[in-house]
Amino acid sequence: MMKMMGFASFDTTKGKKVDGAANAYAINVSQKRKYR
């Protein structure tokens, strides 16, 4: 999931991984759905 979004260097948000990853994932999915 992180690799797909390009968050390879997102190691600093390890503590807030769920919050950041979940938020980014949801936004990405929403945009992709709209785009498609």
Describe this structure in words.
The chain has 36 residues and is mainly α. The chain has helices at 2-5, 17-35. The longest helix has 19 residues, at 17-35. The radius of gyration is 10 Å and the shape is elongated.
Short description:
The chain has two helices and no strands. It is mainly α and 36 residues long. The mean pLDDT is 56.
Strand content: under 5%
Question: Which structural category do the helix and sheet elements fall into?
Answer: mainly alpha
Major sheet: size, sense and barrel closure?
Answer: none
| DSSP strand count | 0
Please give the radius of gyration in angstroms.
10 Å
Give helix % range.
55-70%
Layout of secondary structure:
Layout: H1 2-5, H2 17-35
Keywords:
36 residues, elongated, mRNA splicing, U4/U6.U5 small nuclear ribonucleoprotein 27 kDa protein, SNRNP27
